[in-house]
Each structure stands twice: as structure tokens, then as C-alpha cells.
């Protein structure tokens, strides 16, 4: 196996999921490349040191620029808050590194365009971590749609619901709470949660033409952890939008962090001429499938337990019937990416795919302001 020296930047939540993938991928997938955990980089040195010890990184760095100057590093894995994605990924491209970057691509389309230009000019392999594409049930849904089993698609419906920002006492800014700070996050649930729904939708159902959205910020002011002052909240706490896809289907999307009782309820449903599918993150290994061509008296929704060896990715894990989880989507994503580097046929989502999602987010946020249908730019 050829070694790929990895520097991972940002040892938070995603730093863990990506490190886990780098460590496991060669245990379960036969690949030409083997990631080697060389450098963990984080501004918080104590956290980075503890992380290096736990995950087996060879060295610790606190300045990401030094990572770019290090000739030993082949792959830069960016697990930083959204405001850092552009600067760090463009520097990585300039240094000729292979790039994995967490979603969303950027804070908005303008940043995203600069990134895509720089990355494509550098010609480096690149991936945006929209990992839900690699949940076996969702990959199976893609296969069923591409085989034409659903026929013409009429409806797409998706939501992502949480409830963790309801308290008005929750501050914004700083560690973990950067998601509530618009300067760092770019937007609220639109870029954070709906971006996942949108990427999956564009992958399964093709491009989107126009959107009509409403957003709300329920708590208008919060204390900022870094300044200590009470500041205006600039993010969208909730967003719902209508969309028209290029294939003629109609769609509804909804996301909020104010749906009491829901922690990460990501669902999608697609209704076509011959059938429908439904998927729910809380039951991630199941795909609900209705086939109208079934014999009438036996017709009904099937609950497919996506754990058999002929289901996507599953022959690489345990024996039929045994489940895998959330973290495996990151292993699959890395495996596909490394296979793409070997074959020279890149697997998405690449930065340009990330820009397509960014353009939808931009149009959604614009429509919420103008109260009008807004066209979605093509990436
Ligand atoms: N794919 C997914 O499902 C998914 C899930 C969660 C988060 N994300 C994305 O992953 C990214 C990171 O989110 P997270 O939840 O891991 O955040 P986090 O807050 O848990 O971790 C971010 C880390 O970056 C470090 N950091 C901040 N600024 C830095 C700098 N200048 N140099 C070095 N380190 C710095 C912080 O100290 C922290 O350890 C975000 O873009 C987020 O949108 C994706």
C-alpha cells in the first residue's frame, strides 16, 4: 500500500469522525492508499496533545500555515468551523495537497466560487464531506432511482429537526457555539442542517431551479462568549422552503433547532410514478420502499433492512443482518475518495458539488429576505 501522510486540522466533533475513518478504512476496504496520521493541528494545544495521544497522531501543530509548508504532508483534512474553510483550503490547494473539507463548502457562494477556482486550478483531488450520501440505505435509494424504479419523480420532501438552541440563556460564539455566530457559521440551520438535505436531494433528484423560503430567528439577542457582550443574533434559527427541481418535481424542505424532542431528525421522502422511498436518520439502516408494480393484494411499503451483503458497502462489514452506524458513512466516504484517486475517476461530492449546494442555500436566504421566488445559480 502507498502511504498518504495526513494532517487533520480541527480536533473537534468532525476531527474525531475523520480520524476514525483514516484509522479504519484499510481494515475494511482493499485500497491502494493507506492514510497515515502524521499531524493533528488545532489552536487549542492541550486539546490537540490529548487528541494526538488518543488517536495516534505522530505530532501536534497549532499553526495551520506550518502544515501547508510541510512537504511530507500529502493530504489535508479540514475539520474547522465554516469561516476557516476558504482560507485553509485555498492554501492547501496552492501547496498541492489532496483536500478533504467539511461541509458546508463555505459561508456563501462568493467564498465558494473563489475556492472552486483555486482548487480546480491546482488540479488536486478534493472532497466535501457530505457524508450522508454514504449511508448504505441512501446509496441504495440512489441506485433504485437511477435504475428508474420510481419512474418520473413528482415530489421530494426533506427535513432536519433539532431542539438544542431553545433556551434564551444559551450564549453564541466560541467553542462549539460558533454555529450560532453568523460571522463564523455564515448562516444558521440553512448552511448547517439544510445543506445536508440539499446535497442529498441534488444527488438523488438532480438540480434545483428556484426556491421560495421563510426563515425566523426566534431569539434575537444572545450573549457572545468571546466579547462577553449581548449581541444581535444573525443566524436563521428555522427555515422552510419550497423548491422546483429541473426534472419538474416539487419539493418542501424544513429545518429548525426549535422542534422540542427532536435531536437529529433527518428524513427524506421521494414520490414517483411507480414507487416511493422514505428514509429516516433515526432508523438509518432501513429504507422504506413502495413499488406500485407489486401484485395488488400484496402491495405495501417494504421496510428493507439494508444490511445484506449485496447492499452498498455492507459486504465489507460483518455478516448479513448486522448493523453499522453513523461513523461508517465517513469510512465509506474516505474509501470512495481514495479509490477515486487510484482510478483517476473522482467520486463526489467535489468542491464544485459543494458550490451547487451553496448556491441553493444562497437562493434560500435571499428569498427569505425578498419574499419572492429566487432562481438557483448553476455551479
Ligand atoms: N458532515 C457532518 O455531518 C458534520 C457534522 C458536524 C459538523 N460538520 C462541519 O464540520 C466543521 C467542524 O465542525 P465541528 O462540529 O467539528 O466543530 P468543533 O467546534 O467541534 O471543532 C472545531 C475545532 O477547530 C478548532 N479550531 C478553530 N479555529 C482554528 C484555527 N484557526 N486553527 C486550528 N484549529 C482551529 C477548534 O479549537 C475545535 O477543536 C464545520 O464546518 C461543520 O459544519 C459536519
Characterization of the model:
This protein has ten helices and 17 strands. The protein is α/β, with parallel strands linked by helices. It has two domains: 2-130, NAD(P)-binding Rossmann-like Domain (Rossmann fold), CATH 3.40.50.720; 133-375, Dihydrodipicolinate Reductase, domain 2 (2-Layer Sandwich). Strand 13 (265-272) and strand 14 form a beta hairpin. Helix 4 (85-94) runs parallel beside helix 5 (109-122) and helix 8 crosses helix 10 (351-370). The structure holds nicotinamide-adenine-dinucleotide (NAD). Nicotinamide-adenine-dinucleotide binds at residues 9-15, 41-44, 47, 64, 79-82, 84, 102-103, 129, 131, 176, 192. Nicotinamide-adenine-dinucleotide is lined by residues 9-15, 41-44, 47, 64, 79-82, 84, 102-103, 129, 131, 176, 192.
Largest sheet: 9 strands, mixed
Q: Considering the protein shown, what is the CATH homologous superfamily of the largest domain?
A: Dihydrodipicolinate Reductase, domain 2
| Extended strand count | 17
End-to-end separation: 36 Å
**Low-pLDDT segments:** none
SSE succession: EHEHEHEHEHEHEHHEEEEEEEEEHHE
Please give the order of strands in the largest beta sheet.
Answer: 16-15-14-13-7-12-11-8-17
User: What is the mean predicted local confidence, pLDDT?
Assistant: 97
Number of helices: 10
CATH class wording of the largest domain: Alpha Beta
The second-level CATH architecture of the largest domain is 2-Layer Sandwich
Structural class by secondary-structure content: alpha/beta
Proportion of beta-strand residues:
25-35%
Whole-number tally of structural domains? 2
Amino acid at each position: 500500500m502507498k502511504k498518504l501522510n495526513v494532517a487533520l486540522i480541527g480536533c473537534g466533533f468532525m476531527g474525531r469522525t475523520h480520524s476514525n475513518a483514516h484509522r479504519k478504512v484499510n481494515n475494511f476496504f482493499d485500497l491502494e492508499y493507506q492514510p497515515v496520521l502524521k499531524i493533528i493541528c488545532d489552536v487549542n494545544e492541550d486539546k490537540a496533545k490529548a487528541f494526538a495521544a488518543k488517536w495516534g497522531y505522530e505530532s501536534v501543530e497549532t499553526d495551520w500555515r506550518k502544515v501547508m509548508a510541510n512537504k511530507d504532508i500529502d493530504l489535508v483534512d479540514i475539520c474547522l468551523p465554516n469561516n476557516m474553510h476558504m482560507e485553509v483550503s485555498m492554501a492547501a490547494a496552492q501547496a498541492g495537497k489532496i483536500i478533504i473539507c467539511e461541509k458546508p463548502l463555505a459561508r456563501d457562494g462568493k467564498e465558494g466560487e473563489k475556492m472552486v477556482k483555486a482548487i480546480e486550478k491546482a488540479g488536486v483531488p478534493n472532497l466535501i464531506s457530505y457524508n450522508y450520501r454514504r449511508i448504505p440505505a441512501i446509496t441504495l435509494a440512489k441506485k433504485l432511482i437511477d435504475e428508474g424504479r420510481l419512474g418520473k419523480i413528482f415530489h421530494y420532501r426533506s427535513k432536519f429537526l433539532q431542539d438544542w438552541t431553545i433556551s434564551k440563556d444559551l450564549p453564541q460564539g466560541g467553542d462549539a457555539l460558533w454555529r450560532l455566530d453568523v460571522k463564523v457559521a455564515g448562516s444558521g440551520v440553512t448552511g448547517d442542517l439544510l445543506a445536508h438535505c440539499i446535497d442529498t436531494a441534488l444527488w438523488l433528484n438532480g438540480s434545483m431551479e428556484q426556491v421560495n423560503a421563510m426563515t425566523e430567528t426566534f431569539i434575537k439577542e444572545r450573549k457572545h462568549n468571546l466579547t462577553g457582550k449581548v449581541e444581535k443574533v444573525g443566524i436563521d434559527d428555522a427555515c422552510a422552503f419550497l423548491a422546483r427541481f429541473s426534472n419538474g418535481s416539487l419539493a418542501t424542505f424544513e429545518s429548525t433547532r426549535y422542534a422540542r424532542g427532536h435531536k437529529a431528525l433527518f428524513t427524506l421522502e421521494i414520490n414517483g410514478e411507480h414507487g416511493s422511498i422514505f428514509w429516516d436518520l433515526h432508523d438509518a439502516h432501513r429504507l422504506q420502499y413502495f413499488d406500485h408494480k407489486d401484485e395488488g393484494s400484496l402491495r405495501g411499503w417494504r421496510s428493507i433492512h439494508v444490511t445484506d451483503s449485496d447492499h452498498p458497502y455492507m459486504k465489507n462489514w460483518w455478516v448479513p443482518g448486522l448493523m453499522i452506524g453513523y461513523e461508517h458513512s465517513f469510512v465509506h466516504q474516505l474509501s470512495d475518495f481514495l479509490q477515486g484517486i487510484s482510478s483517476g475517476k473522482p467520486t463526489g461530492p467535489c468542491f464544485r458539488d459543494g458550490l451547487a449546494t451553496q448556491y441553493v442555500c444562497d437562493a434560500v436566504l435571499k428569498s427569505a429576505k425578498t419574499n419572492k421566488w429566487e432562481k438557483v445559480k448553476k455551479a
